[in-house]
């Protein structure tokens, strides 16, 4: 059985750096990490100052290990590839939000995430 997890995390100081080529590269990195961890990306929305990620995850992976891998790999590559990000003290905050689909249907979560881009 897999679990559906909704993640939200943001860059340090909520800086609006997730735009243009940074957004495109972050999207690639998230897909690569998901593939390595055998995760199915249900929805991914990258806003200028945060992102929403909704995944199907195998039960052998802890939610905190998943987000640590996404944040670690993306920070490593983005800081090496973009000078303005390399100058930040760190790419991501230490915090993140995660919740299981639980009592809320996965369709509801996907609609919520997709609406974030339209609201901003």
Number of strands: 4
Mean pLDDT: 91
Work out the radius of gyration: 14 Å
Query: Beta-strand percentage?
Result: 15-25%
Regarding quaternary structure, how should these chains be classified? single chain
What structural class should be given to the helix and strand makeup? alpha+beta
> Termini separation (Å)?
35 Å
The sequence of SSEs as H and E is EHEEHHEH
Fraction of residues in H or I helices: 40-55%
Largest sheet, spatial ordering of strands: 2-3-1-4
Question: Judging from the principal axes of the Cα atoms, what is the shape?
Answer: globular
- What is the helix tally? 4
The stretches of 5 or more residues where confidence is low (pLDDT under 50) are none
Q: Characterize the biggest β-sheet.
A: 4 strands, antiparallel
Structure description:
Helix content is 45%, strand content 21%. The protein has helices at 20-36, 63-81, 83-86, 106-119, and strands spanning 3-9, 40-46, 51-57, 97-100. The protein contains 4 helices and 4 strands. The protein has a 4-stranded antiparallel sheet with strand order 2-3-1-4, sandwiched between helices.
Give me some keywords for this one.
120 residues; alpha+beta; 4-stranded antiparallel β-sheet
């Amino acid at each position: 059985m897999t679990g559906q997890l909704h993640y939200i995390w943001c860059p340090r100081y909520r800086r609006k750096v997730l735009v243009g080529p940074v957004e495109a590269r972050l999207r690639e990195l998230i897909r690569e990490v998901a593939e390595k961890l055998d995760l199915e990306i249900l929805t991914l929305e990258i806003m200028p100052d945060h992102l929403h990620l909704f995944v199907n995850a195998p039960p052998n992976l802890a939610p905190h290990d998943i987000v640590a891998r996404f944040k670690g790999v993306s920070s490593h590559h983005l800081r090496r590839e973009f000078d303005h990000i390399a100058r930040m003290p760190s790419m991501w905050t230490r915090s993140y939000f995660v919740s299981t689909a639980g009592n809320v249907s996965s369709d509801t979560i996907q609609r919520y995430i997709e609406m974030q881009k339209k609201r901003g």
